Amino acid sequence: MFALVTGSSSGIGYSIASRLLEDGYDVVITGRNHDRLLLAAAEFRSTFKSSIIHHFVCEFADSTLIQALKAILTDLKKSINTLICNVRSGRRLLDNLD
User: Fold this and answer.
1) Which of 4, 26, 73, 96 shows the smallest number of beta carbons within 10 Å?
2) Can you tell me the distance from the alpha carbon of 12 to that of 31, in angstroms, rounded to the nearest whole number?
3) Which pLDDT does position 89 carry in this prediction?
4) Collapsed DSSP state (helix, strand, coil) of residue 58
C-alpha cells in the first residue's frame, strides 16, 4: 500500500503518516519547511526500517511544485492507495493531480 500525506512534517500530518507506516504503508511525505521535513523523514526511516519513505518539499500554492511532485509520483510507478490532503487548501493539489 502506498500513501501520499501532505503537510506531514509535523502535527496532524506527521501523526497520520506515522500511523500509516505502522499499518505497513510506504509513504511520500511533504511539507513546506525543508529542515522539519528532513527531520520527519529521518525519524520515520529510523523507526520504520522496512518501509519506503520518500519526502518532497512542496508549497501547494505553487502549481510548479505540484507539477514537480506529480512527475516524481509518476516516476515512482506506484499507485497511490491513500491520499491525505493536509494542507490549507487541497483544491489546487487535487486539480493538478488528475
Assistant:
1) 96
2) 12
3) 56
4) coil
Burial of 11 (0-12, 13-18, 19+ CB in 10 A): exposed
| Residue 87 amino acid letter | V
Grid cell in block for residue 87: 494542507
pLDDT along the chain (98 residues), means of 10: 94 96 96 95 97 92 86 87 80 58
What local confidence, expressed as pLDDT, does residue 98 receive? 56
Q: 92: closest CA among 71, 50, 61?
A: 61
Q: What is the pTM of this model?
A: 0.83
Distance CA 54, CA 6 (A): 12
- What cell was used for 84? 491525505
